[in-house]
Structure formats: structure tokens, C-alpha cells
Design brief:
Distance between the termini: 59 Å
CATH class: Alpha Beta
CATH superfamily: NAD(P)-binding Rossmann-like Domain
Largest sheet: 7 strands, parallel
Shape: globular
CATH topology: Rossmann fold
Number of helices: 8
Helix content: 40-55%
Order of helices and strands: EHEHEHEHEHEHHHE
Structural class: alpha/beta
Strand content: 5-15%
Number of strands: 7
């Protein structure tokens, strides 16, 4: 057990599985107390029991502002403060062509992926501002940086999370509160496994498939990779990092691919009018 988050208290939405559960375990390993929020009550309670007295679970539907406010208040009442807010809850949401996307599915997706982040930022700021300290971390995506990597609504919401991170960060910096985001690629989690295989439990199968297309040789991204990124952003080690979107994508958004890059082999330099060489 380390001490990188010793004495700190974190609230995590979507904490029952995937990135959220990995973050909770990693934070606790580093000395943090955690408040876990999720609509998945059984797995959430089981995780809190696993982590012991340093964890408490509360049902939290991030589409309901009162639920998010209560999660933040639970951190204050149960552990005495809130140092870290992680807005992690998410789904794939509405999929399909733009001209056939049902409006109600679009709205339901926005409620989770964007409004839930807004509520988390709002209520974390409410309790952090008087203390003049805190770290807010929200889950964006590589689909929030590039187009074509996710469904339309997912892409729009994740772009919005990036914008909200920068906008809210510009406000809260003067209160000593750092606001950052993480943008993962497709990682080996239950959500991605369900998309790839139709089975949310087929995480190892998804991991093998992702490793084949990863820019990093035979290396799939995992929930633990995202948890480690969150750990750094939550810790004092990133004390001068603010308004930033940290990718966990093996370089996908900077042009890295599983294949060779363009012009990977030596040729004499290309010149004017089809000439080559010095």
C-alpha cells in the first residue's frame, strides 16, 4: 500500500465496475477513502465490502441532480471532506445513423454522459470552494477528440466534457481547484467487451482483440491504465496540471497505428518535379 493519496477522500460515480471500480481499488491502495456511487447496487455494495471501512456505497443515478449532490454530501458527512471528484459514470448510449436516432434515446444519453458530469462538477465545486482545494476528474474519450470513433451522441457528449473541463477549469483555478479529464481509447472493460462480442463478461476475449489493433505491440488498454492516470491527476504529483485532457490511447489520437507510418522506409529525398536525391 502506498501513500500518494494519504488522507484524501474521493467520490466516484459509476464505481461498481470498469474504470470506476479500478479507480476505487487503486485509490484505496494509495491511502484514499472512497465514496462509491452507482445504479448497480449489488456490485457496488460488494466492492465497498471488499474495500472495508475506507469505503462506503450509495445508489447514485447521475441523471438526478439530487443523487449526485447526496453522494458529495455523503463524502462530507461520512469522511469529513471531499478532495477528489471523479465523474466516471457512462454508457455507449444511442447508436445508429443521425437521421434515424430516436430523440428520447439521444436525450437519455446526454442526461448520463453530459448532465451527470455537470452535476458532479457543480456539487464538487460547492464543497471544495470553501476549502480552496480539490481535484475534479471527468471521463472523456478519444471520441471526444476525434470524430468517427464512437456513436454520434457519445461523440458529442465527450467533446462537451472536454469543453466543460476547460471552461470550468478556467473558473475554479482561482479557488485552488484543479479540473482535468481523461480520454481513453477502447479499453478492455465490460462495456467494450459487450460492443465487441455481445457479452460484457468476455473481457479477456476483448483484450486479445484490442491487442491485435493496438499501436503498442500486443498491448491492449485496461481499466487499470485509466485508474493509474486518474491516480496521477488526483495526487499532488500533478499539482500544476490543470485544464488538461490526458489520453490513455497508445498514441491513437497523435497518429500512431498498428501498421507502419507513411514513409517508414528510406528513399532519397523527394524534390521538385519528380526529382529525388540531393
Amino acid at each position: 500500500m502506498g501513500n500518494r493519496l494519504e488522507g484524501k477522500v474521493a467520490a466516484i460515480t459509476g464505481a461498481s465496475s470498469g474504470f470506476g471500480a479500478a479507480m476505487a481499488r487503486r485509490f484505496v491502495e494509495e491511502g484514499c477513502k472512497v465514496v462509491l456511487g452507482d445504479i448497480q447496487e449489488g456490485p457496488g455494495k460488494a466492492l465497498a465490502d471488499e474495500l472495508g471501512d475506507v469505503a462506503v456505497f450509495r445508489v447514485c443515478n447521475v441523471t438526478k441532480e439530487d443523487d449526485v449532490a447526496a453522494l458529495v454530501d455523503l463524502a462530507d458527512s461520512h469522511f469529513g471532506k471531499l478532495d477528489i471528484m471523479v465523474n466516471n459514470a457512462g454508457i455507449v448510449g444511442a447508436v445508429g445513423p443521425i437521421d434515424t436516432t430516436p430523440a428520447n434515446e439521444w436525450q437519455a444519453t446526454v442526461d448520463i454522459l453530459l448532465n451527470g458530469v455537470f452535476y458532479g462538477m457543480k456539487h464538487a465545486a460547492r464543497v471544495m470552494k470553501p476549502r480552496k482545494t480539490g481535484a475534479i476528474i471527468s471521463l472523456a474519450s478519444t471520441a471526444g477528440i476525434l470524430g468517427g470513433l464512437g456513436p454520434h451522441c457519445y461523440t458529442a457528449c465527450k467533446h462537451a466534457v472536454v469543453g466543460l473541463t476547460k471552461g470550468v477549469g478556467a473558473e475554479l483555478c482561482r479557488h485552488g481547484i484543479r479540473v482535468n479529464a481523461i480520454a481513453p481509447a477502447g479499453m478492455a472493460t465490460a462495456m467494450v467487451a459487450n460492443v465487441m462480442t455481445g457479452d460484457p463478461n468476455a473481457i479477456e476475449e476483448a483484450k486479445k482483440g484490442l491487442a491485435k489493433t493496438s499501436p503498442l505491440l500486443n498491448r491492449a488498454g485496461t481499466a487499470e491504465d485509466v485508474a493509474n492516470a486518474a491516480l496521477w491527476l488526483a495526487s499532488d504529483e500533478s499539482g500544476y496540471t490543470h485544464g488538461h485532457v490526458l489520453t490513455t490511447d497508445a498514441g491513437t489520437t497523435t497518429g500512431s497505428t498498428a501498421g507502419d507510418p507513411a514513409f517508414a522506409e528510406y528513399e532519397p529525398m523527394f524534390r521538385e518535379a519528380g526529382k529525388k536525391g540531393i
